[in-house]
C-alpha cells in the first residue's frame, strides 16, 4: 500500500538544505503542499540567504506545490506569520517537522554562554515556538503529525556538544509531554535522531561514506513518522537506511527497607538497583510514580509476612 500525503499541508523548518530539503522534496512528491522554511544562514547560524526559495524551485520543477519562508524559528512573530500564511493559502497545517538547527561545537571548558544559549535557542526554543504556533490549529482540526529532531549527541552524549546535546535531549522531552497533551486530538508526536552526511557533519564522514549516508536514506523513517498511520511517542534513529527505536527505561529497582534508608544501603544494593532484568519503558511520569508505590507495597507485604 503506498503512503501518500494528498491534501496535507506540511511545514518543514530548516528545509533549505540537508535533511530538511530531502524531507520537503519527498513530502511534495507524495502530494503534500509544503512550506519550505529556512533562514539560510551558515552552519553556526550567522547570516541569511534564499536557500528556501531554491528548494521551492526544485519542488515546482518536479511538479509539486510549495512556498518558501525565511522566518527564523527563534522569532515568535515570524513563526506565527509563517503558520498564518500556510493556513490562509491552504486552509490548515497537518504536519510540522522541526528540523532547523545550528552548531557551535566546543569542549564545555571553552564554550561561551552565548554558544550555549544560541544553540539551545534555535533547536529547543525554535521547536517549541513552531509547535506552539501550529498547536491550536491541530487541536481544532483534531489532526496533527509533529516530528522533532533529536540526535545521538543528546540521547547518548558526544564530546564537544554540551550545548547541542542539552538542546537535543530537551527536544525529546518536549515531545514526550506534547504527545500526552495532543493524544486526545489525534496529534501524534515523534522524535527522530538522524545520521546523515550534510554540511553539519561534513567534517566527520570520510568521502567513501558520503553516498551511504545521503540524507535521502533518512527520509523513509521521517515520513513514516508524520504519515496518517504514524505511531506516537517514539524516538527513532535513522541513518544509511537503518531504522532503530530507542527507549528510556526504568529498572525494577530496590526499595530501601524502613529503618535502613541509608547511603550504605544504596551502596550495598547498587547491583540490584541497576539490574536491568524486568526493566520497563514508562509511558508517562505518572507511571514511574506508580512503580514506586508498587515497590513500597511489595516491601510492606514482605515485612508483614516476616
Ligand atoms: P543543515 O545545516 O544542512 O540543516 C539545518 C538547516 O537549518 C540549515 O539549512 C539552516 O539554514 C537552518 N536553520 C538554522 N537556523 C535556523 C533558524 N533560526 N531558522 C530557520 N532555519 C534555520 O544540517 P542537517 O544535518 O540537515 O540538520 C537537520 C537537523 O538534523 C538538525 O536539527 C540537526 O541538528 C539534526 N541532526 C543531524 C544529524 C546529521 O547526521 N546530519 C545528526 C543528528 C541530528
Helices and strands in order, then pairings?
Elements: E1 9-12, H1 18-29, E2 33-37, H2 51-61, E3 65-69, H3 76-90, E4 95-97, H4 113-141, E5 144-149, H5 152-155, H6 162-182, E6 187-195, H7 219-224, E7 235-239, E8 242-246, H8 263-268, H9 270-273, H10 285-305
Parallel strand pairs: 1-2, 1-4, 2-3, 4-5, 5-6, 6-7
Antiparallel strand pairs: 7-8
Helix pairs in contact: 1-2, 3-4, 4-6
The structure holds 1,4-dihydronicotinamide adenine dinucleotide (NAI).
Keywords: Oxidoreductase
Domain Ketoreductase: 8-195
GO molecular function: oxidoreductase activity
Q: Could you describe the 3D structure shown?
A:
The protein is of the alpha/beta class and 306 residues long. The protein has 2 domains: 238 residues, Rossmann fold (3-Layer(aba) Sandwich); 43 residues, no CATH class. It is 42% helix and 14% strand. It has 10 helices and 8 strands. Strands 3-2-1-4-5-6-7-8 form an 8-stranded mixed beta sheet, with helices on both faces. The longest helix is centred in the middle third of the chain and has 29 residues. It is globular, with a radius of gyration of 22 Å. The model has no long low-confidence stretch (mean pLDDT 96). Bound molecules: 1,4-dihydronicotinamide adenine dinucleotide (NAI). The site of 1,4-dihydronicotinamide adenine dinucleotide has 33 residues, from helix 1, helix 4 and strand 6.
